[in-house]
Amino acid sequence: MGTPEFAVASLNQIHKSRHQVVAVVTVPDKPAGRGQKIHESAVKIYAQENNLPVLQPEKLKNPEFVQQLKSLEADVFVVVAFRMLPREIWSLPRFGTFNLHASLLPQYRGAAPINWAIINGEKETGATTFFIDDKIDTGKIILQEKIPIGENETAGELHDRLMIKGADLVVETLYKIASGEIETTSQDEFQVAELAMAPKIFRQDLKIDWTKTAKIIHNHIRGLSPYPGAFTEILDGENNHYSLKIFKASIADDTEITNLNVGQIRVIGQNKLLVGTADRPISLEIVQLEGKKRLPITDFLLGFRKIEQSKMI
Predict the structure, then answer these.
(1) What's the whole-number average pLDDT of the chain?
(2) Do the beta carbons of residue 57 and residue 51 sit within 8 Å?
(3) Quick one: what percent of the chain has pLDDT higher than 70?
(4) Beta-bridge mates of residue 99
(5) Within the chain, what is the greatest distance between any pair of CA atoms?
(6) Residue 177 backbone zone (phi > 0: left; psi -120 to 50: alpha; other: beta)
(7) In which band, very low, low, confident or very high, does the pLDDT at 112 lie, cut at 50, 70 and 90?
(8) 152-170: per-residue pLDDT in tens?
């Protein structure tokens, strides 16, 4: 059971293993984009390419769908980036239903664990398989694997590494279940001083606060890159506002430190744009002005010549 590309890696690994995929469950097709063309999930596309039966229920509690699942007589359900399942679904298989989560549970329960781990400046994260229960991301842990987070790594880059690591963990979990060697650990047994959560990200979470330190802003930018993207507003000398997404930035090194006020802009040469923060400047590297293409900062500066007369707000 899954929807996006992240889930395809796990499905592919299962399909290539000795386990039999009796069916794939994913979201219904829906119109998307300007042309409202029918969009199929990445999981459905993979399943069809590999001749795997696909189920796309509108409602998970639909009796007809529940009966379809029962008739499959599956030993276990595997969930990767899907929806919250009702008890009448996850309790069906004789060996239970397990989920792959892109964090080291119990830390970062919720919809956006990869983003929030980077935004919060974590040095490591990982992947966890756990049996689903009545609450969100609280079930007994089966397997976990840690990976370090790079100092400049973006959410997109970490997503791709966890996608592969998680797929391996899913198959390893299946082998343990099949062999009867399964051991679980209650999340209550983990000694955690403070739980960090990973709720869904909304627009208000995307705006950059230039009064924060450079490190906090840098983590914010890379934790939202490439999607949905951190943004700021540019206020030019004529009081016009422009929305600017920032996909890549770095903290200015010692040779680039200038006395900049919060939000103040300084252009150095033809390829450097610095913005003042609470401490040291941030150097913008890849940006996208609203309604325009994503550009390296060199190209952006060619088209926005009065940038130094503006400020970030």
Answers:
(1) 95
(2) no
(3) 100
(4) 79, 130
(5) 70
(6) alpha
(7) very high
(8) 999 999 999 999 999 999 9
Cis omega (within 30 of 0) on the bond before 296? no
Q: Is-contact 201 120, C-beta < 8 A?
A: no
For the chain, the domains span: 5-189, 203-312
Using pLDDT thresholds of 50, 70 and 90, give the confidence band for residue 36. confident
217 CB-near residues (< 8 Å, 6+ apart): 208, 209, 210, 249, 277, 282
Domain range 203-312, CATH architecture: Roll (3.10)
Please count the residues of the chain. Answer: 313
Residue among 170, 161, 131, 180 nearest 17 (CA): 170
Cβ burial 250-278 (10 Å sphere, 16+ → b, else e): bbbeeeeeeebeebbbbeeeeebbbbbbe
DSSP 8-class letter at 75: S
C-alpha angle 189-192-195 in degrees, rounded to nearest 5: 115
Q: What angle do CA 34, 35, 41 make, to 5 degrees?
A: 90
Q: What SS3 class is residue 119?
A: helix
**Local structure of 242: helix, strand or coil:** strand
- Is the pTM here over 0.90, yes or no? yes
3-state secondary structure at position 313:
coil
In whole angstroms, give the CA distance from residue 15 to residue 216: 41
Number of Cα atoms under 13 Å in the Cβ half of residue 49: 11
CATH 3.30.1300.10 fits domain 5-189: no
- Helix H or strand E segment including 168: helix 155-179
- Residue that the structure tokens 């679904």 belong to: 89
pLDDT exceeds 80 at position 34: no
| First vs last C-alpha separation in the chain | 43
